[in-house]
């Protein structure tokens, strides 16, 4: 198996006023919280959004592991719908001392390039900043962060920076060059 160099950039906001919201796209696009933890739905979103950009770290998770993660206090999944169809999602994961990670964010390929991503990121980031209001016992959010890498979409970094995220770390590491998994086995040619 061959290796590839992957650059990972970590970005952050340190105040709610850092958020620079995108305009809402035209049409019937809605952002809704998936309030019932559903391993099946979350795995569908993960595989459908990340299948063409080599998201593989959660593909081996069991149903129980998905449920355990989704039932942690403060973990939220916000889903963009275009005319009722899931188009993408943002997953928020709280850490210690008021730090919230946008652990996953992205759109299903058919919905990219339609101005939904900036709107979804804006809404998801705003929900990270007010997370403690929905989860008694969580610390007030003091920092929201995320990471992107050279395997992600070509407009990912630009979208994050346009929403007010600032770069705070860059790492380059060798990773195994894995096949694109697709949303189901064999969905994309090798």
From TrEMBL:
Q: Which SUPFAM superfamilies match?
A: Acyl-CoA N-acyltransferases (Nat)
Q: What is this protein called?
A: GNAT family N-acetyltransferase
Q: What class of enzyme is it?
A: transferase
Which top-level group of life is the source organism from?
A: Bacteria
Q: Which organism is it from?
A: Streptomyces tendae
Q: Could you list this entry's UniProt keywords, alphabetically sorted.
A: Acyltransferase, Transferase
Instruction: List, in alphabetical order, the Gene Ontology terms for molecular function in this entry.
Output: acyltransferase activity, transferring groups other than amino-acyl groups
Q: Which segment of the chain is annotated as a signal peptide?
A: none
Q: Could you confirm whether the keyword Acyltransferase appears in this record?
A: yes
Q: Does the keyword Cell wall biogenesis/degradation apply?
A: no
**What Enzyme Commission number(s) appear in the record?**
2.3.-.-
> What Pfam family does this protein match (any one)?
Acetyltransf_1
**N-acetyltransferase domain mapped to chain residues:** 29-190
Gene3D superfamilies in the cross-refs: 3.40.630.30
